[in-house]
Specification:
The structure holds two protein chains of two kinds.
Chain A (H helix, E strand, L loop, with lengths): L1 H14 L4 H4 L5 H21 L2 E4 L2 E7 L3 H8 L1 H34 L4 H8 L1 H4 L2 H11 L6 H8 L18 H25 L2 H9 L4 H30 L2 H6 L11 H11 L3 H32 L1
Antiparallel strand pairs in A: 1-2
Helix pairs in contact in A: 3-15, 4-15, 5-10, 5-12, 8-10, 10-12, 12-15, 14-15
Chain B lengths: L17 H4 L1 H33 L3 H4 L14 H13 L3 H8 L11 H32 L5 H11 L8 H10 L6 H26 L2 H9 L4 H12 L1 H17 L2 H6 L7 H9 L6 H30 L7
Helix pairs in contact in B: 2-15, 4-15, 6-9, 6-12, 7-9, 9-12, 10-11, 12-15, 14-15
């Protein structure tokens, strides 16, 4: 008792002096300030910097150049290739991760024993430090001792080892495969959890009514999972488009820009070429795409909460 | 009852397809599922297996062509090199020579110990910030209504999507302007900002479900709202709080982009440190694999705990696994 009285005294002496209307906002202030300063403010800074010709090492000598950075993006074929790579990366990587992840989740739920242990093991690629996962794939795709080269030779796909990570035509694909490996487990977990959330009685009732397995899947499983599938779909897009580590570890975006996507290009433009203005303009493109994805993510999120 | 009449619905469940109606169809289905399982899980698990066996191979075996699927000699060379290199880089060589008569000498240069210590510092700091700030905010956001509340929650959710690559350049400019370049402090703040919104969402879900009767009871016992929060709710929220902390910790432990751009290599955390070693000249992969296993352990321990909270956070608490 005595400790609580003491504590009450100190709490109240502070809290009595603050008007009620302000007090509500106080606990929210630190998070808002933190997010505002370190996440929202930089976006405004990027908009501002994108109108300047700014060197990373001499930011004070920035020179206003209007929309020249955007004109550069519009006309530079290297950047076009990067945008094209990004599109391939997001479309191929996301759809493969979704298909594979859905299969994994379904297998875990329907066909395999020890679901909770198995799903924890399956989730390892997703939680492993990004650099660790990417390093494993770099090693496996290695040109001289890589196990994947050996596998392809054994299968008769290729005659001798090829340097995939150093090839202009091929280098985009190994990081995508690594990324599918990292993201599919996340989608599998979402699939599994929503499958587990579906009431068995629904299937029972459907069977009574003579529904085939396909009909049960089409008219019960999919509709019941729609929000989670939508969230999973958006997360796949978001994680794919903003990925940096998988590419940077495996290929550094090279050779040339053959395996660069937008985030890698931003890094190279800012921290290798020191062109902050152009990098900021590129960041804004990425930001706008992410904003669109986030908008839909929030929409779905609100739907989920509204329905529950 | 079920035993007498195993499946009263059997006759209604007839399917159009031979895959479901014949014995042969059942075998085809079973084989297909088994093959599918094998391929899918081989894809997921093989890289993990490869990391583990690589860590236990000798340097000579690593360079063998074709690579061996099982290590010929089970060797701890990779782990030994990691430890020795840390001892050497940390300047403890003579200490160990005197104590154990053992001369640590390592040709490689990866100081895992100091990387881990840096990462621990940043991850614990970020976890603490996210936990304290996030929980305080989530309580108010759950219990009170005020103008702009929904907008704020949406901004928090959206902010989870941006960090990393989209803002690394302006973040660098901001951090340089603040004079905080190459400090762990600024990483603690940034990681805190990246994870606190997640904690807000997770804990708000918890507080929304928290029974009002308990809060009323404590009010009848003359607790102020802050006391109710601290002495009644926080102890009951322990599991969610731990999950929040682990989430923030893991993000900080894994994050590469900001650590790479906002630190010099003297103060690197684990991800950029490992990256530098991997991209260095003549990478020794058994050492990389051994180091990878060491730095992955905290993550695997955390995973077991947060798995179900994690899904809850991503899906707005719609499903509670």
């Amino acid at each position: 008792m005595s400790y609580s009285k003491q504590a009450r005294g100190s709490f109240e002496s502070v809290s009595e002096r603050i008007p009620e209307g302000v007090k509500v906002y106080l606990p929210i202030l630190p998070v808002t300030a933190l997010v505002g300063l370190f996440i929202l403010y930089p976006i405004a800074q990027a908009i501002y910097s994108s109108f300047f010709n700014k060197d990373l090492l001499a930011p004070s000598e920035a020179e206003f150049i209007g929309l020249a950075n955007y004109a550069e993006i519009w006309s530079n074929p290297t950047i076009h290739q990067v945008l094209w790579n990004t599109l391939i990366w997001v479309v191929v990587g996301s759809s493969a991760a979704i298909v594979l992840g859905f299969l994994m989740g379904w297998l875990l739920h329907e066909k395999l024993p020890y679901t909770s242990v198995a799903s924890a093991i399956v989730l390892i690629p997703w939680v492993l430090p990004r650099v660790v996962g990417a390093s494993i794939w770099q090693f496996m795709f290695g040109g001289s001792q890589g196990i994947i080269n050996e596998l392809l030779v054994q299968l008769g796909v290729i005659d001798e080892y090829i340097v995939m990570l150093g090839s202009t035509e091929l280098s985009l694909w190994p990081p995508i495969i690594g990324m599918i490996w990292r993201l599919a487990p996340l989608f599998a977990l979402l699939t599994l959890t929503s499958l587990q959330g579906i009431d068995e009685h629904l299937y029972e009732a459907a069977r009574m009514d003579g529904a085939t397995p396909w009909e049960q899947f089409r008219f019960i499983t999919i509709p019941m999972m729609r929000y989670n599938l939508a969230i999973g779909f958006l997360l796949m897009l978001i994680y794919n488009i903003r990925n940096f580590s998988m590419i940077w570890v495996m290929t550094k975006g090279g050779p040339g820009v053959s395996s660069s996507t937008l985030p890698v290009m931003i890094y190279r433009t800012a921290f290798v070429d020191f062109d902050v203005g152009l990098a900021s303009a590129l960041s804004l493109i990425l930001f706008i795409v992410l904003l669109v994805f986030s908008y839909y993510y929030i929409q779905v999120y609100d739907q989920v909460r509204g329905d529950v | 009852m079920a035993a007498q009449d195993p499946d009263p619905t059997a006759e209604f469940r007839r399917n159009e397809s031979w895959l479901f109606d014949t014995t042969a169809g059942a075998y085809v289905r079973k084989t297909a599922v088994a093959l599918l399982t094998l391929v899918v899980f081989a894809f997921v698990l093989f890289p993990l297996y490869w990391m583990v066996v690589t860590a236990f191979k000798t340097t000579a075996e690593i360079q063998q062509i074709p690579p061996t699927v099982f290590p010929n000699d089970f060797s701890l060379e990779g782990f030994r090199l990691v430890v020795e290199s840390s001892i050497q880089a940390g300047g403890y060589t003579s200490l160990f020579a005197n104590l154990f008569g053992w001369q640590a000498s390592s040709a490689i240069d990866i100081d895992i110990l100091s990387l881990v210590l840096n990462s621990l510092k940043v991850a614990i700091g970020a976890g603490a910030i996210a936990l304290v700030f996030g929980t305080a905010a989530s309580y108010v956001l759950s219990r009170r209504d005020f103008a702009g509340k929904n907008a704020l929650m949406s901004i928090f959710l959206a902010s989870l999507m941006f960090p990393g690559t989209a803002i690394m350049v302006p973040e660098w400019e901001l951090v340089s302007a603040l004079g905080l370049f190459n400090t762990h402090l600024v990483l603690i703040f940034i990681y805190g900002a990246m994870t606190a919104p997640f904690v807000v969402w997770l804990m708000k879900g918890f507080f929304d479900d928290f029974p009002d009767s308990i809060i009323e009871a404590s009010r009848i016992d003359q607790c102020s709202s802050i006391e109710t929060f601290w002495y009644v709710i926080v102890p009951m929220a322990r599991n969610s709080l731990i999950a929040s902390f682990i989430f923030a910790f893991l993000l900080a432990w894994n994050e590469l982009v900001f650590a790479l751009t906002l630190l010099d290599n003297s103060r690197y955390t684990v991800p950029p440190g490992l990256l530098t070693f991997v991209q260095g000249f003549n990478t020794q992969w058994n050492v990389v694999a051994a180091a990878s296993i060491i730095i992955s352990l905290p993550v695997l321990l955390g995973l077991a705990y947060i798995q179900r909270y994690f899904v809850q956070g991503l899906t707005g608490g719609a499903i509670k696994g």
